[in-house]
Every structure is written in C-alpha cells, then in structure tokens.
Amino acid sequence: MALNAWYEKGLDPDEYIEAMKVNKEDLLYIYDNFSLPADEDFFKETRNKNLRAIILTEDWCGDAMLNMPVLLKISEAVNMPVKALLRDNNLELMDQYLTNGTARSIPIIIFIDTDGNEVGKWGPRAEKIQSYIDESRAQLPSKDAEDFGEKQKQMHRFISKSYRDNPDNWSIVYESIKKTLQAI
After folding, report:
1. Do the Cβ atoms of 140 and 148 come closer than 8 Å?
2. Within 10 Å of residue 53's Cβ, how many Cβ atoms?
3. Which domain range does residue 72 map to?
4. Which of 3, 12, 30, 54 has a CA that sits 20 to 30 A from residue 87's CA?
5. What is the CATH classification number for the domain harbouring 13?
6. Tens-of-pLDDT digits for all 184 residues of the chain?
C-alpha cells in the first residue's frame, strides 16, 4: 500500500488521544506544558515544504507518550497534518521501518510530501534519549537473575516519570525532530 493510503487510513491526533487508555494523562501533561522555542526561521522553512506525517504508535508506549506531544506542537506551528496508526494493527507498514532491522520499536514518524513520497523518517528515540535508555539497561541485573523482571519494571516506571516530568527531555526530542525536518 502506498504511503498516501496509509496516511488516509490513520486517525486524527484528537481521535487517537481520545481513545487512549494507558498514557493519555501523561501525554496531555507534556502537550500542555511543552512550549516551542522561538524558532520562526525553522517553522517557516518547514511550512514551505508542505509535509504531512504518519506516526506509528501505541497507547502503552512511553516513548510515544514523550514524542507525540512534541511532534503535535511542531505540526501545529508548521501546518503539517499528522495521522496516527496503531503499530499492532498495521504491521505491514511497521515492518518496513524496523529498528536495527529486527525491532518493531515505536514511535516511528514518517514524513511525506504532497505526492505521498517518503522524504524523511524519525524514531523511535532521540539519540540522547537512546543513550539514557542504554545506560539504564546496563544497570539491570542479567536476564536470568531472579529480580530481573522487577528491576526492569522499576526502570520503566522511572523512565516514564522522567519523560513526563523533565522538560529537558521534551527539548531533546524537539531538537532531534527539528534536525530531521531540516535535512528534508
């Protein structure tokens, strides 16, 4: 299926957010509290590219909870329509955007032009956020350790809390998405 067809199949952000059950409050908290920097030259340049975005996402994903509100703020500033597709219901598309060739990591943002051609891709994490995740995972006990499962759950709770409560993470995501959009 062509990207235009995937785009048309997607949910409007409001529809997606309204249906959320897991991370809705935290996503809305970030959205309500994140302010774009005064970056008018970037906004104007991006607006002139007439882009649209497809975001592969899921409600339970902490990374999507962090990244989607930042994308939505950018999209509003540059008049870039966004559609959300649930990863688990759209594996045919997801499998074209595997992380490291194997992982169905989300969110993945696919930027398309007016003809539906892919012109850029972002995700699932900003580089600095990925380093933070890698460092956190390195602190976990080995997978066969008795307490691995509990320690991993604690790590995920801590990371989600830092995604929600640390505005530096929001700025890191903004700069990373901006870098991708500038390269288009």
Report:
1. yes
2. 23
3. 3-182
4. 30
5. 3.40.30.10
6. 899 999 999 999 999 999 999 999 999 999 999 999 999 999 999 999 999 999 999 999 999 999 999 999 999 999 999 999 999 999 999 999 999 999 999 999 999 999 999 999 999 999 999 999 999 999 999 999 999 999 999 999 999 999 999 999 999 999 999 999 999 9
